[in-house]
User: Which sequence fits this backbone?
């Protein structure tokens, strides 16, 4: 586990498609191929074994925290240390650790709803609570949502001003993952926040991947975060931690969030493995993210060139120049064909260019499959030409699989 793991881009809903037994068998095959591969763009979190993780925490943990101190109990010790570190990084007075981002955002939005007296949350229909949380905002927290836009991008200031009914909170996902990890410009973001203020609304940032937005915005994390009243960040996505999230904001808000965290079952007895992995991610991966973002543009250019050389009639890299170190690729083939081709390429050549493909894309045309590409430390070794060559190779496997069908 020389490189920090990234998440594998598979939501619970996506993993549960198809037969459970067949899905598990195919998943284990993919993981085995990824583990054996010697050329990858990023290492997925599912590739690490428990033994590997335990060795990393034991061997590298002392570089970020004293492992001979008392173990954490209900959020003290290393968890408190992590909370102070995150609050400092984002320029807020306080932070609270949560076992999941879903819980953190449920709590944030219900806290703001109580303070504004308005249970309506304005957010994009592709935002995480709408797509990946089984309707929890309504079912658990009693909140209702409205959508300023249905376009495959974040809303504009005019669209926020044009929402037909009052809303208490505007939630902005930065970047908007299911639309292609897209971001607005800095000026557009400032205008959107100002538009929400004009509507007497509070602003919450879903910053699960906020860590890698600094390059696109040309601003540091505190300057980005201070636009919002509260921010949620994840530790297991771009930072490669085990699990967990943090909610940052004013002290009174964080204290209220802690109370709701307890009510939601989030006051966990001991959380030192997750907290320690998060601290390692902040120390090791956070400084590297700008280099990943820069190289994602190189990889994206190599992909486009490769599709051209392979004479692929239609393809799309979205965004054309990635806003972060993650982006989408679209191809007009069946997702199961593309996934099988990707696995065979990994098994037979030791190169992992793509991982899983899925049907459809809310941000794209019908009849295409979409995959997510992440560029992390291993991806820095790839040149654009090598990426292009791997694309040509991949399309050969695609044709092979289609002939068999």
Assistant:
């Amino acid at each position: 586990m020389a490189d920090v793991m990234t998440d594998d881009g598979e939501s619970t809903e996506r993993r549960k498609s198809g037969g459970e037994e067949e899905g598990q068998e195919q998943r284990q095959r993919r993981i085995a191929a990824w583990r054996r591969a010697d050329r990858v763009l990023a290492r997925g979190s599912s590739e690490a074994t428990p033994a590997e993780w335990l060795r990393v925490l034991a061997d590298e943990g002392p570089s970020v925290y004293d492992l001979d101190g008392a173990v954490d109990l209900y959020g003290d010790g290393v968890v408190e240390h992590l909370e102070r570190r995150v609050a400092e990084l984002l320029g807020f007075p306080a932070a609270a650790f949560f076992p999941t981002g879903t819980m953190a955002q449920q709590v944030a939005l219900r806290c703001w709803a109580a303070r504004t007296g308005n249970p309506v949350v304005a957010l994009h229909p592709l935002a995480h609570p709408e797509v990946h949380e089984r309707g929890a905002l309504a079912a658990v927290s009693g909140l209702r949502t409205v959508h300023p836009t249905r376009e495959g991008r974040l809303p504009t200031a005019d669209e926020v001003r044009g929402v037909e009914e009052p809303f208490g909170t505007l939630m902005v996902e930065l970047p908007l993952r299911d639309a292609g990890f897209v971001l607005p410009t800095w000026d557009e973001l400032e205008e959107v926040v100002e538009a929400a203020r004009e509507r007497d609304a509070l602003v919450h940032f879903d910053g699960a991947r906020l860590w890698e937005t600094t390059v696109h915005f040309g601003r540091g994390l505190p300057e980005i975060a201070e636009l919002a009243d509260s921010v949620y960040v994840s530790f297991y996505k771009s930072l490669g931690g085990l699990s967990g999230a943090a909610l940052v904001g004013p002290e009174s808000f964080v204290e209220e969030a802690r109370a709701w965290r307890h009510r939601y079952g989030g006051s966990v007895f001991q959380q030192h493995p997750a907290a320690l992995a998060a601290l390692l991610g902040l120390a090791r991966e956070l400084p590297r993210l700008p280099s990943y973002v820069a190289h994602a543009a190189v990889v994206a250019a190599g992909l486009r060139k490769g599709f051209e050389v392979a004479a692929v009639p239609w393809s799309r890299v979205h965004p054309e120049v990635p806003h972060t170190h993650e982006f989408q690729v679209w191809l007009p083939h069946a997702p199961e064909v593309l996934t099988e081709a990707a696995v065979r390429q990994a098994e037979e050549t030791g190169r992992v260019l793509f991982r899983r493909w899925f049907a459809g894309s809310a941000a794209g045309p019908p009849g295409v499959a979409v995959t997510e590409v992440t560029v992390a430390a291993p991806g820095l070794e790839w040149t654009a030409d090598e990426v292009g060559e791997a694309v040509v190779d991949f399309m050969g496997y695609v044709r092979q699989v289609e002939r068999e069908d």
